[in-house]
Amino acid sequence: MEAQFFLSTLIQLGINLIYTLFALLIGVIALKIVDNVLLKDVDIQKQLQNGNMAVAVFASTILIFVALIVSFGLKG
User: What is the per-residue pLDDT across 24-49, written as a single tens digit (0 to 9) for each?
Assistant: First the structure.
């Protein structure tokens, strides 16, 4: 009984990891499209070095977005 439960748990974890990677890939592609289309005149790294707080908030939002995708994918 324990081996069957362990195998079932591993399969569920594998499915969740695949889902997470797929969602993360779609999120990164969407962020690249937004960056290339909407923010083509803004250099995020240069703005961060200049102390632009709006760009810092935007960059941190992207990191939170990625963290949420990973955490929800691992929860199942």
Answer: 788 778 777 877 887 778 777 888 89
The two tokens of residue 70 are 């990973």
**Terminus-to-terminus CA distance in the chain, angstroms?**
22
Residue positions counted in the chain: 76
Q: Which amino acid is at 70?
A: V
Token couple for 4: 């069957």
- At residue 11 the predicted structure's pLDDT band, cuts being 50, 70 and 90, is very high
CA distance 11 to 17: 10
Closest CA to 59 of 39, 73, 75, 74: 39
